[in-house]
Amino acid sequence: MTDASPPHPVIILVEPQLAENIGMTARAMGNFGLDALRIVAPKGGWPMKGVRETASNATHVLDGARIFATVAEALGDLHYVLATTARERGQMKRVFGPDEGMAEAAGRLSAGERVGILFGRERVGLSNDEVSLADAIVTFPVDPDHASLNLAQSVLLVAYEWRRAAGRAVLPFLGAMRTGPAPREALISLFESLEADLDAAGYYPPSKRDGMIRNMRDMFHRMAMTEQDVRSFRGALRALTRRPPEE
Amino acid sequence: MTDASPPHPVIILVEPQLAENIGMTARAMGNFGLDALRIVAPKGGWPMKGVRETASNATHVLDGARIFATVAEALGDLHYVLATTARERGQMKRVFGPDEGMAEAAGRLSAGERVGILFGRERVGLSNDEVSLADAIVTFPVDPDHASLNLAQSVLLVAYEWRRAAGRAVLPFLGAMRTGPAPREALISLFESLEADLDAAGYYPPSKRDGMIRNMRDMFHRMAMTEQDVRSFRGALRALTRRPPEE
């Protein structure tokens, strides 16, 4: 975490089993600007063979990962803990969607609290005793018939929502036009050229001409043409109506 | 897609290479209620060995997948197409985040349009010509230093946002308390019992008693106790203050 970055939540994986899920978790964290990873009792020890292969360029997350023997130790220095779970545990805690949970987390982080989010084992999730260590629950608005989210997929949704809640969800580029919208006089001039060419070509049945012109002008308006678009279209029209050179 | 389900967008993978990404895509689609998958020229043919292993119980998505030779054919019957891309293409199209893109898609779907979302190859994404076949672009608000989203991860974010935009993002359970909040008289009665026991135990220095009582009442109020919580607490208090049986 660089000094310039806002405080981040810590992602805590409890006894993850598959190296590729840990690597994909690191990648998902990196995608949305998280880098603090804790792992409780990784199956097969640490460093784990094969974790780097699926981490893309988020190997800094793996290199900085902290390993703990128990969930209680992994949470020791945190002030607020969310537990992710797919099913009702009969526990009387607040239950958030990932968006609401990350809004709560972002508020606490900016007030100086250290926040962690617990993710359980691939097959069986968190135990009830582990969920019991958390302040509140995060669950996902999945289709009940296909409720099993992959571990790294659930980390991704949390990381994505954290970035949004932290006000950092900026798109990498925008759909800016290279030239501005065409002024109306350029459009009207284009319409008149096109209609004159179509008149010369005998396109319009006289009784339908006015309606056809209005419909075609509507089509052009829906294009929201830029100045460059109008120039391109005029060039294409000139090319189509140019008389072939005399032989 | 069952008759009861609202119209869904179609997910279109262009030349996906890794079986596990296709399986994980199907799983991610299933998680958020999508089931229409099209694949353009899958590397290694179709059915592809190993796709089912990572699909969890979303094998119905794979079984229903339609295979096409070209992107143009895969889009043939659609009315509105979004292309996902991580980088600027210099194309003058609208650029959406996944939330805005799926809001647009949901609106068009409910107006009866068929909508598809294009996802490119794992390493190189979509070609400029393929992006050019789309009406608009979807890109993701990633950290620019770690911008590479896994294929199935980007499908997951789109599926998640579609479910939200379609108004179907219902959490599988809520944090409903098993009993209602305790009425104030039960709380005050608990406070008075506790304070009487602490008086009897000589806990309060007389000069600080009033302040300490107020602070502890504040702690209890922050618990937002239910009726059952009050009963449990009273039972615990009785157990602690019970005289040991005479020997």
From TrEMBL, chains A, B:
Pfam families noted in UniProt: SpoU_methylase
Domain of life: Bacteria
InterPro entries: Alpha/beta_knot_MTases (IPR029028), RNA_MeTrfase_TrmJ/LasT (IPR004384), SpoU_MeTrfase (IPR001537), tRNA_m1G_MTases_N (IPR029026)
GO cellular component: cytosol
UniProt entry keywords in alphabetical sequence: Methyltransferase, S-adenosyl-L-methionine, Transferase
Entry keyword S-adenosyl-L-methionine: yes
One Gene Ontology MF term: RNA binding
GO biological process, one term: tRNA nucleoside ribose methylation
Keyword S-adenosyl-L-methionine: yes
Residues of the tRNA/rRNA methyltransferase SpoU type domain: 10-160
Family as reported in the entry's similarity comment: Belongs to the class IV-like SAM-binding methyltransferase superfamily. RNA methyltransferase TrmH family.
Record's protein name: rRNA methylase
Taxonomic classification: Bacteria, Pseudomonadati, Pseudomonadota, Alphaproteobacteria, Hyphomicrobiales
GN (gene name): lasT
